[in-house]
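Dear colleague,

As promised, here are the two records you asked about, laid out in our usual form so they can be pasted straight into your sheet.

NAME FIELD: protein one
SEQUENCE, THEN STRUCTURE:
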Amino acid sequence: MPEPASQILVVNSGSSSLKFGVYALEGVEESLLFNGAVDSIGGSGGKLKLKDENGKPLAEKDSNAKTLEDAFKSAIDALSQAGAGTPVAIGHRIVHGGPHLREHQRLTPDVLATLKQAVHFAPLHDPPAIAIIEAAQKHFSHVPQFVCFDTAFHKALPEIAAHYPLPQKYWEQGVLRYGFHGLSYESIVRALGDRLPARAVVAHLGNGASLAAILSGKSVDTSMGLTPTGGIPMGTRTGDLDPGIILWLLRSGLNIDQVESLLNHDAGLKALSNGESDLRALTKSSDAGDAPAKLALDVFTRSIAKTVASYAVSLGGLDLLVFTGGIGENSVPVRKVVCSELEFLGVAIDETKNLSHAESISASGSKISVKIIAADEDGQIARHTRHLLTS
């Protein structure tokens, strides 16, 4: 077992951002010591922010990081100045490992090579993660690294949920529903513990958003599919589309790269609202009478409600609805509208509790419990990393 003062570094990379945290290993728990982020990597106006375990700011300064490796080095420098020690292990969040990497595991040369071969499954997410892995290998050459996959939680999806209606040869090549945000869903299951009922739907709502149907703690259905582009409409991603639309776009003159950029960067709420993807800004504009903003919100909330209702079929009923993620945890109107559209299932929320972001927001007469629970993806990575390190 690691010494009580041992620390685990958790890193979570985006295409132009880096989130990081340091966890102390004491007893059987992992306790947060520091967390921070570097944003606008490669652009202008970037910031590095670092906080302690209580959220107290320890550092905030301009970042001139041109690459993810630059950002990683600046994060390590800031942590060192704050008193963080050399980690005994490093845990990475990986969005998609393809068909051959579906379990949290120690990083080896073979694992890294397999991950590089799978980048076409998540071309927006995996290359930055690989860049950070390689930066960490340079900086901490003797520290073991571990990879935790967002797809791992959904590995046991029943075939009825995972199998697309395509010829079998494509299933054998890895064309199937993988599901994402698995670390978030794992953290919700852990947070609820014995309070988790048999039939639950968790809505992870953020700029990227998905839902999962969880039966006795296991994923049995989820909205994202082969890639994180599918499912409900998101900030800049389409969600599910008629496949014919893709064919039409290609035949209209767009090439594959242009279509990929459209689907991931210029669609979703941004497209519906004529340019805005931030939920807070959309809510403000909608309240002021902006019709495109209202349409974007209406499509978003209706899609969430339709998915929740469909998962009552997958689960054979519904006992609990959980909102998590940046939007799920903070948007009063999104929760209110979604729950109002689910009244026919017996969902009823207490408006005062919803306004105060209470953990339980269901009304006394609601047939289905409704909760707000913060996702803890980084803490989940720290737990997996510790387990793998000591097993």
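NAME FIELD: protein two
SEQUENCE, THEN STRUCTURE:
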Amino acid sequence: MEKQTTIVIDLDVFKALHAHINYINEPLNDVLRRLLGLNSKSTEKSETTPTNTKMFTGIKGVLFPIGMKLTGKYLGNTYEAVIVRSGLQIGTRHFGSPSGAANSFCNGATDGWKFWHFTDRDGREKPIKILQTKKEYLKQF
């Protein structure tokens, strides 16, 4: 095994690296090697690629785990959405922003950042708006 070292990166760099992932579970080391013009250690997904690596997508500057489930309530009804690479998916419909998805249920303009909620790692329901704050974001996942 080749010698490895740990580096500290900020959230913006982390988001940028994830934006350059070519396939599910591509190691970030391979992403960096490709971006830096170094030979990749693996050109395709190998059997040793970890399967627990979370994939993320950026929506309006906030990083969301792909597959994250969101809920929203309006007039006594509960609506569900899931985070996909292109944004939010509700059934077969795709939306590029939380507000666009919320507007599909509500009459008039709706702030999707307040409408949609997620369940944090402690099982508490919270509005996705708190994910816009870097400090709060890091506490959630």
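A couple of things worth noting about protein two: Residues 43-53 have pLDDT under 50 and may be disordered. The longest strand covers residues 77-84.

Best,
R.
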